């Protein structure tokens, strides 16, 4: 098989690409007119990357002046032509798909007189192109006091109704135990749902207070289906340590359903053994998924 190209490239050219050979420019080549040496299949390797194929090979100095590579792109439904100088040793092929299986790449070397070597065929597969997730909407889940619990609520200020009353004023807040004896963090607020949830987002407001201690500074979002075995979905850090501030997470996709949720505070401002918070909100998130590996190609 011979690749029918009608152009010449300079030896210093790195890489160029075009959709078909008759659209490529003509360049002057200065170099050897000795018969070009074909690329040995054993010297070519490939790496499957997400939505990409990385091809690499061992160029031999003086064996050829430039190299042409052809492959068929199932997405564009046409052949793609690539050109590389003798000094080039790898090419990254973008926008590929694992769904198409092996791609066939045809390597052919050329001398300065544009005489081509035998064609070397290399097969290589792509890694799966990553899916794109887009949040469409989020719906607030109405919570009741009976659904809330805490491992160390303060005896006087651990008032659960203030977490869900819609009031972020100075008198409406929840505090974990700050009286003696204190228990070290983590302290958590737990929600026990009456139904299953999956994709979600969490939001809270810091307490409206002039105190600088006790604001959550890092926390874990945890889920459980039985209330006993817990899994951390996300670890949050750098949380706001200032009064009456809203903090909202991005949407979370744990890949499983759950009926129990924890906002598990692991550190608080000034390294206190407690935290306080003004309000919490839990949302169901509707997420649109675009998967390049399964979407219709028509």
Counting copies of identical and different chains, the oligomeric state is: single chain
From the alpha-carbon coordinates, what is the Rg to the nearest angstrom?
A: 31 Å
Class of secondary structure makeup: mainly beta
Count up the helices.
Answer: 0
The CATH superfamily of the largest domain is Galactose-binding domain-like
**CATH architectural designation of the largest domain:** Sandwich
Estimate nothing, just give the exact number of structural domains: 2
Short description, anyone?
With 298 residues, the chain is an all-beta fold.
Molecular structure report:
The chain is an all-beta fold and 298 residues long. The protein folds into two domains: 15-128, Immunoglobulins (Immunoglobulin-like), CATH 2.60.40.10; 136-289, Galactose-binding domain-like (Jelly Rolls). It is built from no helices and 19 strands. The strands form five sheets. Strands 1-5-4-7-8 form a five-stranded antiparallel beta sheet, with no helix packed on it. The protein has a five-stranded antiparallel beta sheet with strand order 10-12-17-14-15, with no helix packed on it. A four-stranded antiparallel beta sheet has the order 9-19-13-16, with no helix packed on it. A hairpin with a 2-residue loop joins strand 2 (45-49) and strand 3 (52-56). It starts with 14 loop residues before the first strand and ends in an 8-residue tail after the last strand. Residues 1-27 have low confidence and may be disordered.
């Amino acid at each position: 098989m011979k690749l029918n190209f009608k152009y010449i490239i300079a030896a210093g050219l790195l890489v160029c690409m075009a959709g078909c050979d008759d659209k490529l420019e003509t360049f002057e080549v200065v170099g050897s007119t000795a018969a070009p040496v074909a690329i040995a299949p054993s010297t070519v390797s490939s790496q499957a990357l997400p939505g990409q194929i990385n091809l690499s090979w061992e160029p031999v100095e003086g064996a050829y002046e430039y190299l042409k590579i052809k492959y068929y792109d199932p997405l564009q439904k046409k052949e793609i032509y690539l050109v590389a100088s003798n000094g080039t040793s790898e090419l990254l092929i973008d926008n590929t798909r694992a769904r198409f299986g092996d791609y066939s790449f045809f390597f052919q070397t050329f001398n300065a007189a544009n005489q081509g070597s035998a064609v070397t065929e290399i097969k290589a597969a792509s890694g799966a192109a990553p899916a794109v997730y887009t949040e469409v909407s989020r719906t607030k889940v109405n919570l009741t006091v009976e659904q809330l619990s805490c491992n160390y609520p303060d005896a006087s200020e651990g008032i659960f109704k203030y977490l869900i009353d819609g009031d972020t004023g100075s008198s409406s807040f929840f505090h974990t135990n700050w009286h003696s004896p204190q228990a070290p963090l983590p302290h958590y607020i737990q929600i026990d749902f009456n139904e299953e949830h999956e994709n979600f987002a969490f939001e809270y407001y810091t307490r409206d207070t002039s105190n600088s201690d006790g604001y959550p500074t890092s926390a874990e979002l945890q889920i459980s289906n039985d209330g006993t075995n817990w899994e951390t979905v996300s670890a949050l850090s750098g949380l706001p340590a200032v009064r009456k501030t809203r903090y909202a997470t991005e949407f979370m996709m744990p890949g499983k359903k759950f009926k129990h949720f924890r906002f598990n505070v692991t550190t608080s401002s000034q390294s206190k053994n407690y935290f306080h918070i003004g309000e919490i909100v839990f949302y169901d998130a509707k997420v649109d998924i675009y998967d390049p590996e399964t979407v219709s190609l028509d």
